[in-house]
Specification:
Blueprint lengths: L3 H4 E4 L3 H9 L2 E6 L5 H12 L3 E9 L3 E4 L2 E4 L3 E8 L6 H4 L1
Antiparallel strand pairs: 1-2, 2-6, 3-6, 4-5
C-alpha cells in the first residue's frame, strides 16, 4: 500500500468491538483489501503513536440485499483486529 491513510479505511465501532477493547484491549479497523499484516502494523503505529503486539485479519463477505424487485450486494471488505502493548490506547475508541 502506498500510504497509511489508504491502508486504514476506518475504525469499526460496534457494541461487540467496544466490549473487546474494554476487556482485552483489541481494536477493530476496516482496512484496504490488499493490505497485509505488516502494512497494517506499520500504519497503526505511525498514525496513533502506539506499539502493536498482534494483528488478526479476516475477509468479510458483503451481504446480499434486496432493493425493490432486484437483488444487489454490499461490497466485500477486510477487517483487522489489533492488540496493543499494555498501557497504550487509541483515543478514537475511548470517546
Amino acid at each position: 500500500m502506498s500510504t497509511v491513510h489508504r491502508t486504514i479505511v476506518r475504525p469499526v465501532v460496534t457494541e461487540k468491538s467496544s466490549a473487546a477493547y474494554q476487556s482485552r484491549g483489541e481494536y477493530t479497523f476496516e482496512v484496504a483489501s490488499g493490505a497485509n499484516k505488516n502494512a497494517i502494523r506499520t500504519a497503526i503505529e505511525s498514525l496513533f503513536g502506539v506499539k502493536v503486539t498482534g494483528v488478526w485479519t479476516s475477509n468479510r463477505r458483503g451481504k446480499a440485499r434486496r432493493v425493490g424487485t432486484t437483488t444487489g450486494r454490499r461490497p466485500h471488505w477486510k477487517k483487522a483486529i489489533v492488540t496493543l502493548q499494555e498501557g497504550d490506547t487509541i483515543e478514537i475508541f475511548e470517546g
